[in-house]
Amino acid sequence: MKGLEAPVRVWRVRSLFRANEGRVRAAFVGRHAELAQFSGVAETCRTAGIGQMIIVRGEAGIGKTRLVEEFTRIAADKGFATHKGLVLDFGVGKGQDAIRSVVRSLLGIAPGSSKTVRQAAAESAIAEGVVAADQRVFLNDLLDLPQAIEERALFEAMSNAKRNDGKRSVVGKLIQAPSKRGPVLIAVEDVHWADPLMLTYLAAMAATVTDCRALLILTSRIEGDPLDQAWRATTAGCPLMSIDLAPLRKKEALALAGAFIDATNQFALTCVERAEGNPLFLEQLLRDAKERGDAEVPASIQSIVLARMDRLPPADKRALQAASVIGQRFALDTL
Fold it and tell me: What CATH code would you report for 49-244?
């Protein structure tokens, strides 16, 4: 790499250990305009049955996920059913990619459910007419279910394009069905990791929500954002609201700091300055200082993570090391 004269050992964080999962989260600050915009869109969707797509963009740590959490809270208050998917850059377990996660959620299948549960959900969807009987092969594939002998022969004889067309059609029907009973919110995060095939599914989902009581939220980093004009042209004219998140204003950053320490002291001001309006960095700076009990300001999130790993008890450290070998998503039994 440029600037490095000798080889260095490279590390990659493959899983994050969340200590103190039950702790109180920092208060949500700022983003008033974005929340007001979403509230209006959600209300229109609920009352008039007009769906649309919302794209939330911003740099890493700027608060995309936190904002989507607030969106889902607002939507829940308005009676929306929420379904989520996450695009990972690697380490995706079977049945855990974003589209399959959304499909399982739409069918009421809990994560990690057995083949019997998935089979029952598929049979119910077909019996209720949500999915046509001749689309069973596509639903089976989306739910990672074995195909019957005749279905397997039919599925294998299809071209790859026809298989994907069939699965995209099934996903659309699974979105339309619950939207007739009540409003639906689908959120897919980290779309900047999406491959070309995943993008075609997201475009089909966008085209679907256009004509039903559903909202589709996609999050992406600005750098490497694949949701360009060419992609948007494939969404069948789906109405779009684009939100580009800016750094927190100083007043908002100080309000966030106040959830951890006295925001008027010099250390808090130093953290606010160091974070430059990035809420994730600021929160981690303050939380780390509170855990360590000193006033030294770490230089980066990486240094914070490494320091926290060093402070783990031996058993937890071994668990973290084992988890990093398995991947980003895994069953507790595997760990």
Answer: 3.40.50.300
Place of tokens 């969807």: 125
Closest C-alpha among 185, 171, 189 to residue 86: 189
Nearest to 66 by CA among 44, 35, 37: 35
Q: What is the dihedral of CA 65, 68, 74, 76, to 10 degrees?
A: -90
Mean pLDDT calculated for residue range 247-259? 87
What is the DSSP secondary-structure string of 252-305?
HHHHHHTTTS-TTSHHHHHHHHHHTT-HHHHHHHHHHHHHHTS----S-HHHHH
Distance CA 87, CA 244 (A): 19
3-state secondary structure of 202: helix
Q: How far apart are CA 15 and CA 326, in angstroms?
A: 9
Say what the pTM is: 0.80
**DSSP secondary structure letter of residue 249:** P
Q: pLDDT of 154-191, one tens digit each?
A: 888 999 999 999 999 999 999 999 999 999 999 999 99
DSSP 3-state assignment of 217? strand
Tell me the angle at which helices 279-292 and 266-275 cross, rounded to the nearest 10 degrees: 140
Q: What number is the average pLDDT over the span 111-126? A: 91
- Where helices occur in the chain by DSSP H, the ranges are 32-48, 64-77, 98-106, 115-127, 136-142, 149-157, 160-179, 196-209, 229-232, 250-257, 266-275, 279-292, 301-311, 314-326
Task: Sketch the domain layout of the chain as residue ranges.
Answer: 49-244, 250-318
Angle between helices 98-106 and 196-209 (to 10 degrees): 30
The pLDDT tens digits of the residues spanning 2-54 come to 777 888 888 887 766 554 444 445 678 888 899 999 999 999 999 999 899 99
The CA distance from 126 to 129, in Å, is 5
Opening angle at CA 135, ends 131 and 137, nearest 5: 125
What's the rounded Cα separation, in Å, for the pair 91 and 296?
A: 35
The number of beta carbons lying within 10 Å of the beta carbon of residue 139 is: 26
Using CB atoms within 10 Å of the CB of residue 163, give its burial: 0 to 12 exposed, 13 to 18 middle, 19+ buried.
middle
